[in-house]
Design goal:
- The complex is a heterodimer.
- Chain A contains 13 helices and 15 strands.
- By secondary structure, chain A is α/β, with parallel strands linked by helices.
- Chain A has two domains: about 240 residues, Thiamin diphosphate (ThDP)-binding fold, Pyr/PP domains (Rossmann fold), CATH 3.40.50.970; about 140 residues, 3-Layer(aba) Sandwich (Rossmann fold), CATH 3.40.50.920.
- Chain B is α/β, with parallel strands linked by helices.
- Chain B has six helices and seven strands.
- In chain B, a hairpin with an 8-residue loop joins strand 2 and strand 3.
- In chain B, helix 3 runs antiparallel to helix 6.
- The chains are: A alpha/beta, B alpha/beta.
- Chains A and B meet through strand 1, strand 8 and helix 9 of A and helix 1 and strand 2 of B.
- Strand 8 of chain A pairs antiparallel with strand 2 of chain B, so a sheet runs across the interface.
Chain lengths: ~400, ~190
């Protein structure tokens, strides 16, 4: 079905098609529309989800944890400070191995308070044990949400999944979208029949008890193994999804990388803008390409190293600061992934787009210009820089 | 940066006037006609009366670019008072047009658009809306005007498609359905191109 929907509408529609058992709902810009649209579906009787309106994001995630522990399928949506308020519970959800699905509509974290896009919210949760899948546009936001449950619920994984889209840029932009039929979605998702759950009377289970030193580490190792197993599962689900949709997904997308010498590594909606820059440069004979990271957790390190093996200069573009004084989070992962290559490309990090600072095709072309210089001179200059901020003179 | 055959439109309005809604509606209707579309807002402070900007890209191929629009083909000004505070013609392409909601004529508007020598179009969206709907909803007549001036959509088909869209939108308010259709038709007739 061809439609025009915003990213938020698309995810709310995916939720309707899935008809989850429980939604923990609390509004925050720019994800508010998701529980809003969903509330209408509930009111109209189009789903039979238990819609639990709560007083904070700490509680909405607590609702999801309790529901999923009881054997139900739970979803929620949030952004920015809402995700920050969930942090404690994100860890609880992941360590209790509860495959909750969370739509994260990325927005900058305070302060100063800002409603626009960057990844400071979900990057803060990157070590919480959640699978994280990022979308370039409304279509991917919809598709990723539908793939989330078959990934998270599989016994070898049993981890919560956060599907991320860019706040406003994707969440509030109406674009063309291909929707699946609801019965196709329901068959794809299947019934949720966990082996163990709190309310299983034949074999009642304690969820989240105190874990002393003799067992805590074993549990963490199991959690780490599950995250490794998720990589395989994500690809299996993508292959199944291609059969019902015709749309192909991997751990990342390689765009014109086959003979690329200069490459970008980035995420989200900027990938679309960067594809236009790559096309333009290719017409001019520049061997430009890009890798769009789709799955950030688990991080596809070995696969990324292979994809970048033939390049001469690479810029990682981080849309969150991280304040490590050594580059952003995507840079840290990428640089680490390339360590084992015998011949490595020159690598720089560019932090950009914070708090909704716009990025244009011309900005991306400039990054490629810098990479071309680096490839020729072998001088990378500063390892980690910011792009798009005004100088003191420009502000005055 | 627009690729070939892409039409880019920038809307300037004030929070509460429906510029964003008209922008989304245009995207939806253009999509119904088989175009690839984008319709998205740029939010500043979220309050009634604050200047807001919204954007459309309409093309024959899916557009992957997700930046704001800096060099539009058309600019729509939903609130005339913005001419004094916002550089509405900034980046507007030669050969493009600006469409202003005003009782004034294109000739009267031109001195208020320093540096712009291209087409100036005017439509008295407030009067049309007040006469037909009984209150000031300038966005629907502005939508009609931009469709007419840009020629981006076939006018007859546009009216037919939007009729369907309004039918469901105003299912419980038949007076608004008829009124909005009438404002659209009126604005298609009345827009002045100068």
């Amino acid at each position: 079905m061809s439609h025009r929907l915003s990213g938020n509408e698309a995810v709310a529609y995916a939720m309707k098609q899935i008809n989850p058992d429980v939604m923990g709902a609390f509004p925050i810009t720019p994800s508010t529309e998701i529980p809003e649209y969903f509330a209408q579906y509930v009111a109209d009787g189009e789903v039979n989800t238990e819609y639990v309106a709560v007083e904070s994001e700490h509680s909405s995630m607590s609702v999801c944890i309790a529901a999923q522990a009881a054997g139900a399928r739970a979803v929620c949506a949030t952004s920015s400070c809402g995700l920050a308020l969930m942090y404690e519970l994100l860890y609880v959800a992941a360590s209790c191995r509860l495959p909750i699905t969370l739509a994260c509509v990325n927005r900058a974290l305070s302060g100063p308070i800002n409603i626009n896009h960057d990844y400071s919210d979900s990057m803060g949760g990157r070590d919480s044990g959640w699978i994280q899948i990022y979308a370039e546009n409304n279509q991917e936001a919809y598709d990723n949400f539908i793939m989330a449950m078959p990934i998270g619920e599989t016994p070898s994984v049993r981890l919560p999944v956060m599907t991320c889209m860019d706040g406003f840029i994707t969440s509030h932009a109406v674009e063309n979208i291909e929707l699946l039929e609801t019965d196709v979605v329901r068959r794809f998702i299947g019934e949720y029949n966990p082996e163990h759950y709190l309310l299983k009377k034949e074999n009642p289970l304690a969820v989240g008890p105190y874990d002393l030193s003799p067992y805590y580490m074993e549990h963490k190792v199991l959690q780490a193994e599950a995250m490794k197993a998720a990589k395989t599962r994500i690809l299996e689900v993508a292959a199944e999804f291609e059969k019902i949709s015709g749309r192909r997904y991997g751990l990342f997308e390689e765009y014109r990388m086959e003979d690329a010498e200069l490459a970008l590594v980035l995420m989200g909606s900027t990938a679309g803008t960067a594809k236009a820059a790559v096309d333009k440069l290719r017409e001019e004979g520049v061997k430009a390409g890009l890798v769009k990271i789709r799955v950030f957790r688990p991080f596809p390190g070995e696969e990324l190293a292979r994809a970048l093996a033939g390049t001469r200069a690479v810029a990682v573009m981080d849309k969150s600061e991280g304040f490590s004084a050594n580059g952003g989070p995507l840079f840290a992962e990428t640089r680490s992934a390339l360590y084992d290559l015998k011949e490595r490309a020159y690598l720089i990090d560019i932090v950009y787009g914070l708090g909704g600072r716009d990025v244009k095709v011309e900005d991306i072309e400039k990054v490629f210009g810098r990479l071309a210089d680096i490839a020729v001179t072998g001088e990378i200059g500063p390892l980690y820089t910011h792009m798009g901020q005004r100088s003191k003179e420009e502000i005055a | 940066m627009a690729t070939n055959n892409m039409v880019e439109i920038r809307w300037h309005g004030r929070g509460g006037q429906g510029a964003k809604t008209a922008c989304m509606l245009l995207a939806d209707v253009a999509g119904l006609q088989g175009k690839f579309v984008q319709g998205f807002p740029e939010y500043g402070p979220e309050r009634m009366g604050a200047p807001i900007t919204a954007y459309n890209r309409i093309s024959e191929k899916r557009c992957n670019i997700h930046s704001f629009i800096y060099n539009p083909n058309y600019v729509v000004v939903v609130d005339e008072t913005l001419l004094d505070s916002v550089d509405v013609t900034g980046g507007l392409k030669e050969g493009g047009a600006i469409i202003i909601n005003t009782p004034g004529s294109p000739q009267e508007m031109r001195p208020r658009l320093p540096g712009w020598t291209g087409k100036v179009c005017t439509i008295d969206a407030r009067r049309i809306s007040e006469e037909i709907l009984g209150s000031n909803f300038p966005n629907t007549p502005m939508l009609g005007a931009v469709v007419k001036v840009s020629g981006v959509l076939d006018t007859e088909r546009f009216l037919a498609d939007i009729e369907e869209s309004f039918k469901s939108k105003f299912a419980s308010k038949p007076r608004l359905f008829e009124g909005n259709m009438a404002t659209l038709k009126k604005s298609l007739e009345e827009v002045q191109i100068g």
